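Minutes, project check-in
Item: structure for the 285-residue chain
Input as provided by the requester:
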Amino acid sequence: MPQSRTASLLAIYPHITNRDRLLLQLLDDHQVLTTDQIHRMLFHARRTCQIRLGELAALGLLDRFRFARDGGGSHPWHWTLGHHGHRFQAAAHQRPEPTLRTSRQTAHRLSANPHLTHLLTANEFFVRLTAHARQHPETRLDRWWSESLTTKQFRTITADGHGLWSNADTTVGFFLEADTGTEPLRSRVVTKLDRYARLTRRGGPRYPVLFWLGSEHREEHLHQLLRGAHDDVPVATATHTSEPAEAVWLPAGTTGRVRLIELPSDHGQPVADNPNYHDDGDFVC
């Protein structure tokens, strides 16, 4: 049996393009993306995207699910790794071979995850930056870390994501807090900023904390709460209707909006537990 399973996966390899590999890696890192998100990041024509996703699903590399809308119709397809996609990624990263049952459970748990909307919102932020960079060659998203990888690397914080955004020779790091309006701002903001302050005191980076909010009302409320809270932690806000790369960010304590690349950013010190640096002190991009 193991030989036949291996042969089956090897037979798929000639059908996998470099773009497919990138998509498999994105889904391995970030769990789920919609058709529209994949289209904006990797394809020019939406129909070409839809056809290719169907082909990858037929090969067992991708799996998908969607839900009915309350008023009729359906939500968009949500794409995740299929069993062969999990196997391909396991082989690529020297991880144990997943079983079919494990792959199916992963997809089922993700589809039933009560935080699925929050995950897609956080992913959407980075999708927009990626799509912007496709249209503006002077910009690039050098790093896109998921919540789990960000927590693993920086330890004391629990951001929804972390990235490095570059424009020409300037690079800005940031931590993302994606708000979907389900949690009270007052009881969470100060606690979160305490953790970022501890990270900075440890020699870690002093990156702006980006609160990406669902409405202008919540944005106004958050700025009221931020008055006098942790001036040593840079904070900026914008809403989901905005394009993250543009001049949409309102730093705490100011009245003018700036571009992402214009926010203050310090990569921290080359200390042992700062993942921005190699052991020899060189910066890791």
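Outcome recorded: The mean pLDDT is 93.
No further action items on this chain.
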